Amino acid sequence: MEYMSPSSGLWSGRKRAAIRVRAKIMDSARSWFKIHDYVEVQGPIIIPALGDRPSSFKIRYFGEDAYLTQGSQPYADTLTRNLGKVYMIAPVFRAEKMSTGRHLAEYWRIEAAVPSCSLEDLIQTEEQLVCHISNCLSKDAKEELNLLGRSVGDLSKIRPPFTRLTYDEVIEMLRDAGYDIQWGATLQWEHEEYLSLQFSQLFFISEFPVGLETYFYESHPDKAGSTLSVDLLAPEGYGEISTGGIPIGKIGELQRMMEEVGVSPAEQEWYARLRKMGHTPSAGFALGVERITQWICGLEDIREASAFPRSINEIYP
Amino acid sequence: MEYMSPSSGLWSGRKRAAIRVRAKIMDSARSWFKIHDYVEVQGPIIIPALGDRPSSFKIRYFGEDAYLTQGSQPYADTLTRNLGKVYMIAPVFRAEKMSTGRHLAEYWRIEAAVPSCSLEDLIQTEEQLVCHISNCLSKDAKEELNLLGRSVGDLSKIRPPFTRLTYDEVIEMLRDAGYDIQWGATLQWEHEEYLSLQFSQLFFISEFPVGLETYFYESHPDKAGSTLSVDLLAPEGYGEISTGGIPIGKIGELQRMMEEVGVSPAEQEWYARLRKMGHTPSAGFALGVERITQWICGLEDIREASAFPRSINEIYP
């Protein structure tokens, strides 16, 4: 394992600018949440090790196994039930072996959960938040954006509504472009990149097939096999920056869905225990801090968006 | 291990108020840092597993061992060198077996680092920050504080300077009160509690003996055996809410100090590697989010200051 930063302790001007932009993205996101009466919260980082979860880092917790969180969506029920609209900015962790320049093992997310919120409301919430961030940055980060060679004018012009595609439409677009992809398949990085290069503005992809998303979203009322889920993608090849949807409400349906996609009984138990503490219908999304920083700054390598990046086999000091 | 919250998913009014106050503490701290031109940063959560560190949680990181951070002070050099004054609000982790109602295994800290800053400047920085937080809360959290039975008037009256004691003075006070404690000993919880009950306002304890603090602080230029370190304690028995000081600059002195207090050669190597990336003289402190929340809200159990508390042998869902 390599502990030393390849670039020594002194950062390039680009890296300094990127880390300053990252701070301003967080600040502008918080100002939007504050204006709209969201309560700031922190979900747990250490979670119970129920089930076998190779995508999570395992820790030894007072002699027993536990995992590092992959996101606080499972805790949104308790939070929205007690506090209404909530948001958090916190680190999450993924132990999957993914390519180094595109994925981090440790990254920060802006997560939000909104009680009694439709998919359309959720999409509009994300649009407003991301427009607020872009517009704030175009005013507050001119110097950094100029240094990074990004257009301040383009950022200031970002307005809702963003282009909206469904998963079904995206599969058609990809097949028309010659990709060999079936309905129901996960979008790979090459697919996202192709789509992302077709647009000069942010765009949504909604209604993913059952079983494709990390969390368990409600079935679409008018479209069998599809869910109330939505991703937000950045243009110019940067790809997915946010994922979200409406989590399944009924415990029976949740358990049926978990069985269908092969979640182990032990992990099902964790969701069931959380759900037994009560359910508030809500919708939520998570925006990747390093991903939105990468897009706004035009960074080739996502590690430039983190002061001390952690990726597969790499821990800089 | 117990996974279920003792109180079910529905929180008491006190807990809701405490979590809202916690959010407002973070918000007011950030507004102070923003006014004073600090750059917001995030240190790493996963750190290299050099040395044997029973007080840190161990994780499996792509087939190798790593640890969860206990705080980003060792990374302050790189951050201040590249960005000047910095702050972060992030989770930290302690695997020590400490009493459940007073200590958390996972908690959040407000950390700051300031280049070229004397101990006196550091003390004044903390005073200003904590006064700003208290005064903001007295305006923005009246409803929550009333529900919790805390005096809004008392918070609004908090002003610098806070009482300043040295470690030497504190040892004398404790011996006068009948405690059997020698100069050089760590202050135990009972000592902190006794001291904290003697004051109705916040107070500092500075110049701790070499080897007592978690980090490695500069030797006091006029007092052999003492360091340039300072803790901030809350009154009414709440005890320590912040710890800080001036980290040792010279690599040779740092290594001598680490050897003196018995740091393993492997862990010394981690500090040495970080230091080889360059050093900027700076001072820093860390304010415990749950600790300041506990004091401001008057909470008996620190777990009330966290939405999903993790303490020894306990992971609520």
Quick check: average pLDDT of chain A?
91
Say how many strands of chain A there are.
13
What CATH first level of chain A would be assigned?
A: Alpha Beta
Number of domains of chain A: 1
Using the 3D structure, state the CATH architecture of chain A.
2-Layer Sandwich
Q: DSSP helix count of chain A?
A: 10
Spans of chain A of at least 5 consecutive residues whose pLDDT stays below 50 are 1-7
Seen as an oligomer or otherwise, the chain set is: homodimer
**CATH-assigned fold name of chain A:** BirA Bifunctional Protein, domain 2
Short structural description:
Chain A has 317 residues and is α+β, with helices and mostly antiparallel strands. Chain A has one domain (13-307): Bira Bifunctional Protein, Domain 2 (BirA Bifunctional Protein, domain 2, 2-Layer Sandwich), CATH 3.30.930. Chain A has 10 helices and 13 strands.
Give your account of this protein's structure:
- The structure is a homodimer of 317-residue chains.
- Chain A has an eight-stranded mixed beta sheet with strand order 1-5-6-11-10-9-8-7, with helices on both faces.
- Chain A has ten helices and 13 strands.
- The first copy, chain A, has helices at residues 13-35, 76-83, 119-140, 142-148, 152-156, 167-176, 189-197, 251-260, 265-276, 289-297; strands at residues 39-40, 46-48, 58-61, 64-68, 86-93, 106-115, 163-166, 203-206, 229-234, 239-245, 282-288, 310-311, 314-315.
- The first copy, chain A, is globular.
- Chain A has one domain (13-307): 2-Layer Sandwich (BirA Bifunctional Protein, domain 2), CATH 3.30.930.
- Mean pLDDT of chain A is 91; it is low at 1-7.
- In chain A, strand 3 (58-61) and strand 4 (64-68) form a beta hairpin.
- At the A-B interface, helix 1, strand 1, strand 2, strand 3 and strand 4 of A face helix 1, strand 1, strand 2, strand 3 and strand 4 of B.
